[in-house]
Every structure is written in structure tokens, then in C-alpha cells.
Write a structure and sequence with these properties.
With 259 residues, the protein is of the alpha+beta class. It has 2 domains: 7-99, Gyrase A, domain 2, CATH 3.30.1360.70; 115-259, 3-Layer(aba) Sandwich (Rossmann fold), CATH 3.40.50. It is 54% helix and 10% strand. The protein is built from 9 helices and 6 strands. The chain has helices at 7-22, 46-58, 63-72, 97-109, 137-155, 171-183, 194-210, 212-226, 230-253, and strands at 32-34, 42-44, 80-85, 91-95, 121-125, 159-163. The strands form 2 sheets. The chain has a 4-stranded antiparallel beta sheet with strand order 1-2-4-3. A two-stranded parallel ribbon has the order 5-6. Strand 1 and strand 2 form a beta hairpin. Helix 6 packs across helix 7 and helix 6 (171-183) crosses helix 8 (212-226). The longest helix is centred in the last third of the chain and has 24 residues, at 230-253. Belongs to the class-I aminoacyl-tRNA synthetase family. It catalyses: tRNA(Arg) + L-arginine + ATP = L-arginyl-tRNA(Arg) + AMP + diphosphate. Residues 9-95 form the Arginyl tRNA synthetase N-terminal domain. It comes from Symbiodinium necroappetens.
């Protein structure tokens, strides 16, 4: 099967041929747009312009007559079904369901090629879940949407990079690191699961809000982390790694491609 052509492009080509056959002396691109679903799938808007600029010279009395000439010149095809001509000159068409079924069947049964030129480099930003917390449905939704966009763009021939920012940074990690030094002092050797980190985070937030001395230590831990302190940086990296492992389990089940 050859490269896939858009439905709009094929309908537009039919109207371009109709305009050429009906008005060979007029050079005009086919103005075909998406139609109102109530009336049809696509709408050709050339008749009014042709009437304003050439109607009298061509012997037409109304835009409707121009539109009828366009309709009458449409080439024989199996794409267009019902055709409606409005008094204002709009030519609205419906695509045949039989043609759609045939095209979809060919796509399902055979290989399809499609190229959206020019080829571009595209970056798709995924869900970027929070470190030390389990993913929720919002993260799953944006991940699936991002992967769907990526696959469509790759199918169209673009160079696509899927990125996922995983690496929160700030006061919450000062709280978490300081709390884990007390409650789970060997956490860097025996890494906890991400759901444990989430519980530790909740407990550390409670301590931070209620214990002024703990709050001060947590704030100093943030300063140490941002200054590149060996213990704080190592603890932060371990927490990030625990989170990534948990996230990747889900990404793997969903067949998500993230660089």
C-alpha cells in the first residue's frame, strides 16, 4: 500500500479538478474546509468569490449558480457521497461510509506509510511524577496522552524524544532526609519502597509543622543539599532512584518509551 493521503487532501483535489474543468480561465486554489457536522464533512467556499469577481462575465446571476457548476464538474469518484448546495454558494459534501470502511480495512490488513513533511525534531514532556510519592491517575493520564502523541508523530516520520523530569528539589527533601535519619537511619543501604517514602514524607511534614527544632534542622538539610553536601546529595539520589524504579515498573507495563 502506498503512502497514506489525508481525506481532506483527496476531497480538496477533487474540488480543484472541478474548478479547473468548470472555470478553465480562472486560476484559484480550492478553498475546502472542515464542514459543520450537521450538514456534511467538508465545505467548498469558492463559489462566492468567483461570483463576486467573475459572475457577470461568466453569465451567472447568483452564487448558487456558480456552486451548481462546481458540483456538476466534480469528477466521478467513490469518496464523495451526498452533496448539498446552499443558496449562498457553499458546496457541502459527505464522505461515503463505504469508502471509509474500505480504507480502514486496507489500513488494518496492510502496512501504511505516511510522511508529514518537513520532518521535525519534537520533544514530548511526559507526566513528571513527584519524587517520593506514588503516581496517581493524573500522572497515568498525561503519560498515556504523551505516549500516544509520540507514537503518532513517529509514525508521521518525525524525530521524537520523550522526556520525563524526575528530580524534585527543595524544602520537602530537607524534611524527608532529616526525618529518615531518625526513623530509618540505614535507608541508604536498605532502600525503602516508594509507598514507604510517601508515608515518611507525610510524617516529616507533620513534624515540620509542629516541631520548631526539627523544622530548623530540615531547613539546614536543604541548604546542605543545595550546597552539594555528600550525605544530603547521596540521600537525595537514593530517594530519586527508589522513585524511578517504581515509576519504571508502571512505564514498562504500559510499554512507555522515555529517554
Amino acid at each position: 500500500m502506498g503512502p497514506l493521503r489525508s481525506v481532506h487532501g483527496q476531497v480538496k483535489a477533487l474540488f480543484a479538478q472541478a474548478l479547473l474543468d468548470a472555470f478553465p480561465s480562472i486560476q484559484q486554489d480550492a478553498a475546502v474546509v472542515k464542514g459543520n457536522p450537521k450538514y456534511g464533512d467538508y465545505q467548498c467556499n469558492n463559489a462566492m468569490t468567483i461570483f463576486k469577481e467573475h459572475g457577470t462575465g461568466l453569465g451567472f446571476q447568483t452564487p448558487l449558480q456558480v456552486a451548481e457548476a462546481i458540483r456538476g464538474s466534480l469528477p466521478a469518484n467513490d469518496i464523495i457521497g451526498e452533496i448539498t448546495v446552499a443558496p449562498q454558494g457553499f458546496v457541502t459534501v459527505k464522505v461515503r461510509e463505504e469508502w471509509i470502511c474500505k480504507e480502514v480495512g486496507q489500513i488494518v490488513l496492510g502496512e501504511v506509510e505516511y510522511r508529514d513533511l518537513p520532518r521535525k525534531r519534537v520533544v514530548v514532556d511526559y507526566s513528571s511524577p513527584n519524587i517520593a510519592k506514588e503516581m496517581h491517575v493524573g500522572h497515568l493520564r498525561s503519560t498515556i496522552i504523551g505516549e500516544s502523541i509520540r507514537r503518532v508523530l513517529e509514525f508521521c516520520g518525525h524525530e521524537v524524544h520523550g522526556l520525563n523530569h524526575v528530580g524534585d528539589w527543595g524544602t520537602q527533601f530537607g524534611m524527608l532526609i532529616e526525618y529518615m535519619k531518625e526513623a530509618y537511619p540505614n535507608f541508604q543501604e536498605q532502600l525503602p519502597e516508594v509507598h514507604d517514602l510517601q508515608e515518611f514524607y507525610k510524617a516529616s511534614k507533620k513534624r515540620f509543622d509542629e516541631d520548631a527544632e526539627f523544622k530548623s534542622r530540615a531547613q539546614l538539610a536543604v541548604v546542605d543539599l543545595q550546597a552539594g553536601g555528600e550525605f544530603a546529595r547521596s540521600a537525595w539520589q537514593k530517594i530519586c532512584e527508589v522513585s524511578r524504579v517504581a515509576f519504571n515498573r508502571i512505564y514498562s507495563r504500559l510499554d512507555i518509551s522515555i529517554e
